[in-house]
Amino acid sequence: MKRKKVTEPVRIAVFVSGGGTNLQALIDAQRDGILRTGKIELVLSSSRDAYALTRANDNGIPTVIVARKECADQGAFEDGIRAALAAHNIELIVLAGFMSILSEDFVREWPRRIINVHPSLIPSFCGKGFYGLRVHEAALAKGVKVTGATVHFVNEIPDGGEIILQKSVAIHKNDTPESLQQQVMRQAEWLLLPRAAEQVSLEILSARAVSTNTTVFNGT
Ligand code: GAR
Q1: Residue with CA closest to ligand 1 atom 1
Q2: Residue 179: which domain range?
Q3: Which residue, among 181, 176, 171, 175, has the nearest Cα to 144 in the 3D structure?
Q4: Number of domains, the chain
Q5: Would 128 be classed as within a structural domain?
Q6: CB 3.0 to 4.6 Å from 194: which of 29, 60, 117, 156, for a disulfide?
Q7: Domain for residue 61, yes or no?
Q8: Phi, psi of 81 (to 5 degrees)
Q9: 51-77 b/e with 16+ CB inside 10 Å = b?
């Protein structure tokens, strides 16, 4: 990878599998200057028909499809991902509704460089089997009165990496999994994910500065 200038935006890849409303929140945040230290340079989808791909195309962001089910095995899948990341000089991976598993080996190659948004207050309703609507079904079944969203670093433990940001959302008596999902997205995920991406981008920029012995002024 070529050496980055200290002030060049951090190159972000957003990994998606479905509707891409979190991707949209990142795109909007970039437009509005909330995400400014990092720039979305690639959208990688694990599914050919993810609507997130349309959102990326509409915004002129390069896309690549690496479909798990079209790959011979997990190794081939992740080699496809590695090739795309290298081709675009990616420095930070943002999982935004990415529903494929990444192996421990892959995750170890990106320490503090992969973040994920999860639709609950970790450590509740997280880990293996908890994704998408299932998370909200579990929260309603348990009868909790407050849920929320978490953005965290990704490590070898599913949903087990260091927490970056969290925000709570109240559950109402008549909530359904679908209505709760909408509320958690609106009130928490779409706000947290761009802020966390900015925060980690600043961390990456600072690491670049240390390696070149340069001070970074970020304007705040
Ligand atoms: C979001 O609610 C996200 O938190 C969740 O999937 C949804 C994707 O929506 N992710 C997980 O459950 C990961 N464990 P989107 O495609 O509209 O952003």
Answers
A1: 97
A2: 10-212
A3: 171
A4: 1
A5: yes
A6: 29
A7: yes
A8: -65, -45
A9: bbbebbeeeebebbbbbbeebeeeeeb
Residue 3 lies in a domain: no
pLDDT mean over 78-91 = 98
The tokens of 195 are what? 């802020």
118 is catalytic: yes
CA of 202 to the centre of ligand 1 (A): 24
Which stretch of DSSP H or E encloses residue 51? Answer: helix 51-58
What's the pTM value of the predicted model, to 2 decimals? 0.94
Could you tell me which of 86, 89, 94, 81 has the C-alpha nearest to residue 20? 94
Which residues are registered as beta bridge partners of 11? 39
Q: What is the CA(212)–ligand 1 centre distance, in A? A: 37
User: In which order are the strands placed within the sheet that holds 146-153?
Assistant: 63-65, 38-45, 10-16, 92-95, 114-118, 146-153, 163-170
DSSP per-residue string spanning 76-101: HHHHHHHHHHHHTT--EEEESS--S-
The per-residue pLDDT for 78 is: 98
Q: How many CB atoms lie within 10 A of CB 131?
A: 17
Closest atom of ligand 1 to CA, residue 20: 16
pLDDT score of 210: 83
Q: Which residue from 138, 141, 132, 144 is spatially nearest to 170, judged by alpha carbons?
A: 144
Q: How far is the CA of 72 from the centre of ligand 1 (A)?
A: 26
